[in-house]
Amino acid sequence: MSDFDLASGAQATPSRPQLNRKAFEPRALKSGLLTALTWIAAVLASVPLFSVIYMLLVQGGSRLFGADVLEVLTGLPPAGFELGSGIGPAIVGTLTMVLIASAISIPLGILAAIYLGVLDPKSKVASTSRFLAKVLTGFPSILAGVFVYAVIVIRFGYSAWTGGLALAVLMLPTVVLAAEEAMAQVPQKMKDAAFGMGCTRTQVIWKVVLPTGLPGILTGVMLAIAGASGESAPLLFTALFSNYYISELAEPTASLSILIYNFSGMPFPNQIELAWTASLVLVLIVLVFNILARLVGQPKV
Asked: Using alpha carbons only, how large is the chain's radius of gyration in Å?
């Protein structure tokens, strides 16, 4: 019942709770303390990242953003006391092997994800394959290179396509798991509606599941490519290195990560500067793929 003022007979206004925040209230103090600790932890965690970026910009930015940028991006690696030149073959070789790896791992990964996420997700084969894919995500990258070396390189020699195959081994589990998760997020009602309209299973996969899960699939693909771009250990056993532009896939091929490894230990200042420049270029390549992954993975409003 409503409260009335006995003196006037009018209805009294109910009292409202005080919502003003008190600065020294225990809950406010606790919230402020935890917020401050969170900010401190975030700043401390970002210090190494920004330190690395700053060092790369200082050490490698002078050559990459200087007047001789075209020579740096297109020139051949220098030998000995030679000055100038650049990292052109390493950039081309890296992009070539990543393209080969993508051509191998993306189709296989999406097909495997279709089986795991749509065709028979609860079978023993699917459970075993899913478990192995998760194990492979923590697989040491150097072992992928050793595996390809023992199976292929010993027989056919170092080449760009064996380097791409080693990178594909590392990319495959990321593509499979990301694509499967994206397909699993497709609402069952959409698939049931397609079946109700008379669509076959193949039509449901191509017309409903893949288009709807495409942003998530592309995110996994971009992250896999970004991770493969910076790998070095597998390429030591498969692609080796070359000071020249790649002319055919069946020959040793330069890469940015191996160039950094080789030049950083040389006693020549020019090569050390190019190692820093190659490091900056590699970080920029990885950054671009990560940004693309974030952009394509954003939900459409």
From this structure: 28
Question: Considering its fold, how many domains does the chain have in total?
Answer: 1
- Rounded to whole angstroms, the Cα distance separating 209 from 59 reads 47
Domain that holds residue 235: 89-268
Q: Is residue 298 part of a domain?
A: no
- Domain with residue 187: its CATH number is 1.10.3720.10
Chain segment 56-105, per-residue pLDDT in tens: 888 888 888 877 888 888 889 887 777 778 899 999 999 999 999 999 99
Q: Could you tell me if residue 44 is inside a domain? A: no
Query: Cβ distance 171 to 227 under 8 Å?
Result: yes
Q: Supply 240's token pair.
A: 């080796």
Task: Provide the angle, in degrees to the nearest 10, between the axes of the packed helices 256-263 and 269-297.
Answer: 150
Residue 10 placed within a domain: no
Residues 187-203 as b or e (16 or more Cβ within 10 Å = b)? eeeebeebeeeebeeee
**Residues β-bridged to residue 11:** 4
- The verdict on residue 136 lying in a domain is yes
Please check whether residue 249 is in contact with residue 161, taking contact to mean a CB–CB distance below 8 angstroms. Answer: yes
Q: Give tens-digit pLDDT for 125-135.
A: 888 989 999 98
Between CA 127 and CA 121 the distance in angstroms is 7
